[in-house]
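Appendix C: a fully annotated inverse folding record. The material below is reproduced so that readers can follow the format used throughout the book. The structure is listed first as tokens, followed by the designed sequence.
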């Protein structure tokens, strides 16, 4: 006689193996990157090679009432911080809305700023993942470890990049857009730190606000942006003019940027800059149609996940660390997916970015040259995860079997009604 316990035991074996693989990969990747973060923060010679030094130099310019986008002033400060002689000046290409955030760094010396800056980044990152897990009901599984050990996120923290703040703004919007739209609108200000990464997402957002007439959210956006502009102008009244001048001399059109839009331009016509913005334009048109078809059942966590991944893929320029913004979509996909193989695959793909970071010491820029596949792969993985949920819900043999069983029980109950005993 075959008991029903035997299949259950057999099914638990591959499940345990997959969970062990995921946990091992996530733990190893996180430990490796934490070690690198500590080395880069505590090692003086490497400070000038991190993106953090750009924020510090910009803050220093602000604190001394100088042009925060001045080439000579920035280069002098970055060289003093340890920037290699063969590297050119690095500009903070964030819009002037980011100036109030980096201004406090100008009040600290390089060493103190390098110790203080990672703290708000770590808090923003950890709180974002915590909120995302809560929005999915705080499941008892450990799938949130995929977010904590996500390769691009750890590289973002190691470089001291501000994209983590944009992630926090996005997650806060997802958390409060239904219950407290005014607060959600104010939180969207953080997304203005990296507006080029939200173009299709932003188009759908505008259409959603107009369709739902969500005036409270619109008011929150307006109040937050007005306050930001007031602080920014008090720091540097000519910030926007100086920012536009910097864009003309920064040479961003000549920089190597490992993203889909850049490769499209260099493949078709390297000197035709507008080609780099073509994918974003097409994605915006698609996003508008995507929203309009689903406008009556729109869900920002579900439908916004696909929008977000498309926005990252079609961005006119982006780096590997900017893909930290994919965490809400990938974590949502991991929670709805019924395939543990897909979860193990996501952990492995994330670990590959860590391996590329390790190889960066042998071959410079390997972390970017060997990870050009990541943005499209996250999108493909999410589509596969969503499909696995659909297949599990509509697996016809199981559904037919359950239907017949339910129909038989219903018929038996109808023909032979069960009477409850009475007192």
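Designed amino acids, in order:
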């Amino acid at each position: 006689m075959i008991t029903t316990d035997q299949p259950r035991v057999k099914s638990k074996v591959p499940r345990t193996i997959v969970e062990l693989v995921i946990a091992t990969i996530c733990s190893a990747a996180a430990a490796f990157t934490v070690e690198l973060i500590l080395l880069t923060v505590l090692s003086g010679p490497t400070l000038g090679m991190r993106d953090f030094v750009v924020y510090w130099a910009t803050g220093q310019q602000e604190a001394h009432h100088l042009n925060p986008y001045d080439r000579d002033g920035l280069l002098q400060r970055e060289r003093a911080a340890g920037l290699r002689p063969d590297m050119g000046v690095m500009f903070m290409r964030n819009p002037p809305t980011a100036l109030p955030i980096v201004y406090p760094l100008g009040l600290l010396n390089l060493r103190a700023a390098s110790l203080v800056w990672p703290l708000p980044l770590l808090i923003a990152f950890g709180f974002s993942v915590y909120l995302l897990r809560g929005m999915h009901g705080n499941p008892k599984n450990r799938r949130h470890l995929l977010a904590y050990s996500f390769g691009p996120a750890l590289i973002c923290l190691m470089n001291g990049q501000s994209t983590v703040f944009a992630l926090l703004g996005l997650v806060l919007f997802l958390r409060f857009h239904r219950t407290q739209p005014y607060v959600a609108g104010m939180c969207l200000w953080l997304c203005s730190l990296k507006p080029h990464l939200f173009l299709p997402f932003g188009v759908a957002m505008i259409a959603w606000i107009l369709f739902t007439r969500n005036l409270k959210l619109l008011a929150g956006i307006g109040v937050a942006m007005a306050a930001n502009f007031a602080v920014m102008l008090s720091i540097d009244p000519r910030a926007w003019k100086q920012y536009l001048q910097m864009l003309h001399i920064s040479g961003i059109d000549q920089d190597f940027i490992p993203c889909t839009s850049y490769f499209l331009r260099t493949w078709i016509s390297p000197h035709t800059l507008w080609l780099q913005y073509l994918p974003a334009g097409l994605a915006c048109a698609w996003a508008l149609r995507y929203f309009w078809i689903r406008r009556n059942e729109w869900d920002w966590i579900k439908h916004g996940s696909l929008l977000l991944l498309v926005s990252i893929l079609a961005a006119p320029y982006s780096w590997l660390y900017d893909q930290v913004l994919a965490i809400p979509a990938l974590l949502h996909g991991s929670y709805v997916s019924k395939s543990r193989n897909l979860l193990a695959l996501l952990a492995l793909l994330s670990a590959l970015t860590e391996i590329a970071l390790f190889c960066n010491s042998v071959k410079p820029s390997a972390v970017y040259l060997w990870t050009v596949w990541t943005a499209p792969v996250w999108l493909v993985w999410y589509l596969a995860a969503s499909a696995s949920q659909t297949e599990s819900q509509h697996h016809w043999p199981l559904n037919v079997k359950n239907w017949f069983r339910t129909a038989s029980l219903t018929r038996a109950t109808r023909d032979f009604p069960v009477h409850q005993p009475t007192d």
